[in-house]
Every structure is written in C-alpha cells, then in structure tokens.
C-alpha cells in the first residue's frame, strides 16, 4: 500500500506547496500554457515535496499495515496484514558525505531504504509530474474549453484532477519494475518450460556447472 499512498500524496503535496509558494512569492512566469504558474512556486514546491516525501516515507515505513500485502485467512475468515517487511523497510545505517557531516555534526544516520527511493519519487513528482498538468492545460486551450468535464463541481472532471497522477502512476510502475521488483522464480520457470528440450538441457547443464562451482551440489 505504501507504493500507492506515497506517490499520490507527494503529487498532492507538490500541487499545494507550488500554489502556496507561487501565491506568496511568485513573480516570474514559468510557462505560457499556465500563466499562473511561477518559477518561485515550481522551485519552492520541489524542495517542500522532497522534504515531505522523505518524512512521510519514514512515518509509513514503521507500520506493517502500509508495507505488508493483504492476505485472506480462511481460518479466521478475515483479512490479515502481517509479514516480515522486506529490506526496504528495515532501518539501515548510512554514512553521510563529508559536507553534510560538517553541517549536521553526524557521521552516520539510520534510514529506511524506502526513504531513498522516496527522494526519486518526489523529484519526479516535482520536476516532471507538473508537465502532465501543462499538457492538459495546452490541450484544453487548443479546444477552447475550461475543463474536460463537470463531474466535480468547481473542479472539472476526473482528468482535470488527476492529470499529474496519471503520469506519476506510469513512472512508479516503471520504477518498481526496473529497480525494486526482482526476478519471479515462477515466471522464470514458466519461460523455461516453453523452450525446446535441447534448450532446456543446455540451461540445465549451465545451471548444474554453476551450482557445482558454488559448492551447492556435489558432482
């Protein structure tokens, strides 16, 4: 659930903080497609979102409810959320760069690895995510419409509220697939079973030689 809640929350945070920074400090227009967007709001929203994502990731990583998958127990006839969290959600010690050591006076800090990933998510949500909104604004201006629909009174349609979320959801999927999710043994086995017998035998011999070298099996 944490991979769902954190990305959605940081997009919302970026939207709010960019508005606040732009409202109070905005002077320089950012893009013609959205005249009310300013560089001050864009930059202020970025830093605020990174900080929020980092702290929010720490808060949620402490609870199994957010990091464990939901399973159904036939014995109790109920859903249970109990597991051994992955290494992403175990505190680990990191050595700070020398510059940060001189600033904070700490040599090491304890963080959840997921917090490091949250920085990447927050950076995308702040620097690239808003362009989903810019694209939607340009699209609406091209067709001379204010909103895509009137589903939500005063806010337009679903697309008007979730234009940045669609882009963020795509990024999160690619990010998890590329950097988080490891090989699935069952899928690997399924792929092996559809190979020709001689190909399976070749893979078997390679795997056998590898396991012998590792000492996992005897020759």
From TrEMBL:
Belongs to the CDS family. It is a multi-pass membrane protein. It comes from Potamotrygon motoro (Ocellate river stingray). The chain crosses the membrane at residues 6-26, 38-60, 114-136. GO terms for molecular function: phosphatidate cytidylyltransferase activity. This is Phosphatidate cytidylyltransferase. It holds the Pfam family CTP_transf_1. One of its GO terms (cellular component) is endoplasmic reticulum membrane. Keywords: Lipid biosynthesis, Lipid metabolism, Membrane, Nucleotidyltransferase, Phospholipid biosynthesis, Phospholipid metabolism, Transferase, Transmembrane, Transmembrane helix. One of its GO terms (biological process) is CDP-diacylglycerol biosynthetic process.
């Amino acid at each position: 659930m944490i991979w769902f809640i954190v990305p959605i929350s940081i997009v919302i945070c970026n939207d709010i903080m960019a508005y606040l920074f732009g409202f109070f400090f905005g002077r320089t227009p950012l893009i013609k497609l959205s005249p009310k967007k300013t560089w001050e709001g864009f930059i202020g929203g970025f830093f605020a979102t990174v900080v929020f994502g980092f702290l929010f990731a720490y808060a949620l990583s402490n609870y199994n409810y957010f990091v464990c998958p939901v399973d159904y127990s036939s014995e109790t006839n109920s859903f249970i959320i109990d597991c051994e969290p992955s290494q992403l959600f175990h505190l680990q010690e990191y050595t700070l760069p020398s510059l940060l050591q001189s600033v904070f006076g700490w040599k090491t800090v304890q963080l959840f690895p997921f917090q490091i990933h949250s920085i990447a998510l927050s950076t995308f949500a702040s620097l690239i995510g808003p362009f989903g909104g810019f694209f939607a604004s340009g699209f609406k201006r091209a067709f001379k419409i204010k909103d895509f629909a009137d589903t939500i009174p005063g806010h337009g349609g679903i697309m008007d509220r979730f234009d940045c979320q669609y882009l963020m959801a795509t990024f999160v999927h690619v990010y998890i697939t590329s950097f988080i999710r490891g090989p699935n043994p069952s899928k690997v086995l399924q792929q092996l079973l559809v190979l020709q017998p001689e190909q399976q035998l070749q893979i078997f011999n390679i795997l056998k030689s590898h396991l012998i070298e590792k000492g996992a099996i005897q020759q």
